[in-house]
């Protein structure tokens, strides 16, 4: 085995205190995401959107990496082949947990994007609708987040990696939202083994060759130890 592609979702950060969208008290039950997580919502009320993400940014910056983040960093450092870490999470807990190269397919809460010219920069802790883009001067700054209806980032890197992987691992993700929901099929068609690590199996059982059930902070370190032989 030379190439591993790992996809992580909200379940990896949940034990750091960052709630998932799908739990009973998750963001989908407390907010109308059409108002705070779409380009149309931003156009209607940028202050509401920025306030929503200001709160999420504060939560993410106050959270600490957990044992799952640390274990994946150990895997990247200790595995003799390639480990591509792709995350659906917008926090930076993987990086703060020691991982080097992390592909953020849904963007990063710590980055800002100009809706007018496309320039990107490090976001301030609190963003305001009056903030201007440092490149073009337009007051059209938004979080550098992939919203509903937008194309995920870095697909030109992710898809070829899936096609060349020997092992694809999905950790803490529901596997219900495309294109990420189709990653397991792409990897399998290319001949890769597939593994799911989650609290509960994905809604469509049998999609993965193997399933490890358990908390990310317990299951991920155990699996990494198995892979590294330590």
UniProtKB/TrEMBL annotation:
Q: Identify the residues that bind NAD(+).
A: 9-28, 88-91, 172-174, 198-200, 216
Residues annotated as binding Zn(2+) = 114, 117, 133, 136
Give the main EC class: transferase
Task: Return the cofactor note field.
Answer: Binds 1 zinc ion per subunit.
Q: Tell whether Metal-binding is among the UniProt keywords.
A: yes
Keyword Zinc assigned: yes
* GO MF, one annotated term: protein-malonyllysine demalonylase activity
- Provide the cofactor list for this protein: Zn(2+)
- Report the EC number(s), separated by commas if there are several: 2.3.1.286
* Location in or out of the cell: Cytoplasm
Deacetylase sirtuin-type domain: residues covered = 1-230
| UniProtKB keywords | Cytoplasm, Metal-binding, NAD, Transferase, Zinc
Give Gene Ontology CC terms: cytoplasm
Chain sites annotated for binding substrate = 53, 56
Catalysis performed (reactions): N(6)-acetyl-L-lysyl-[protein] + NAD(+) + H2O = 2''-O-acetyl-ADP-D-ribose + nicotinamide + L-lysyl-[protein]; N(6)-succinyl-L-lysyl-[protein] + NAD(+) + H2O = 2''-O-succinyl-ADP-D-ribose + nicotinamide + L-lysyl-[protein]
The record ties this protein, via Pfam families, to: SIR2
- Would you identify the family this protein belongs to, as annotated? Belongs to the sirtuin family. Class III subfamily.
Q: What does this protein do?
A: NAD-dependent lysine deacetylase and desuccinylase that specifically removes acetyl and succinyl groups on target proteins. Modulates the activities of several proteins which are inactive in their acylated form.
Q: What is known of its domains?
A: 2 residues (Tyr-53 and Arg-56) present in a large hydrophobic pocket are probably involved in substrate specificity. They are important for desuccinylation activity, but dispensable for deacetylation activity.
Cross-referenced HAMAP family, in alphabetical order?
A: Sirtuin_ClassIII
Name by which UniProt lists this protein: NAD-dependent protein deacylase
The species is Roseicyclus elongatus DSM 19469
> Corresponding gene?
cobB
